[in-house]
Amino acid sequence: MNIAFPALLVFLILLPGFIFRARYKRAERSSLDYSPFGQVVAEAVLWAIAAHVFWLGVSYLFFARSVDPVVLLSLLIAAPKEQNEAILAAGRESRWIALYFVSLFVASFSISAAARKAISRFQLDRQGQRFSSFFRFHQAPWYYLLTGADFDQDSKPDLIVVSAIVNVAGAAVLFMGILEEFFVDADGGLDRLILRDVMRRPIESDKKADEVDGGASRFYLVEGDYFVLRYDETITLNVQYLKISETE
Fold it and tell me: What is the dihedral of CA 10, 12, 13, 19, to 10 degrees?
């Protein structure tokens, strides 16, 4: 008990930091986080410290409640006498302590998600912004490439056109369509693209150097509402951002 209880207490103290970090970060990996272990722990500890400082401040200002450092340190040491006395002291405030941790867990879960949404909403992570290196989600490169998140509001693309060369029965075929949605796999790699208004043509029918019309007549419309393009079947991928403007 003398060893297990301090470990459990440390886990409860640091858990808000791990919750906040997991919900705040926009990562394209859904199964594993391959960040260095030291980085994960350091970030979680920093978030946990910030969360406790803020929550203890709220507790003191609005409810006149504060933490007793003597009791806290006694709970973390392995001295049986001091630890038992600290447990008795904490037991008398068990309801308040339980409410503190439960509310902190809920706040860490919800505030982190709201912060991530606000960063994307106000484009604080957009490349070129003053603090973009701090707010940028470095583990989501496909998000920035395939959503146009690095454009400001005035130049944000209305359409994103994807062109991909696919090997079909030994022949290279160019598929081109408007990006509707994209999905990543569990390791963070691009899995598939959902396109609409897709056209195709053999790559051997590429336009000549002196052609300026784009060779639209060489394309064949692919029937269907949506076209699923698997990224591992593509040879090359081209992304084009289009802005629709009104003309007189």
Answer: 130
For the record, the structure tokens of 137 come out as 């989600």
pTM for the model:
0.68
With beta carbons less than 8 A apart as the criterion, state whether 2 and 92 touch. no
Residues 231-245 pLDDT 10s: 999 999 999 999 887
Contact assessment for residue 172 and residue 235, using Cβ atoms and an 8 Å cutoff = yes
- pLDDT per position as a tens digit, 103-138: 999 999 999 889 888 888 888 888 888 888 888 887
In whole angstroms, give the CA distance from residue 176 to residue 216. Answer: 11
In angstroms, the CA 151 to CA 127 distance is 8
Nearest CA to 24 out of 120, 102, 101 is that of 120
Closest CA to 231 of 28, 81, 91: 28
For residue 231, the 8-state DSSP code is G
Strands (E), 130-188: 159-168, 171-184
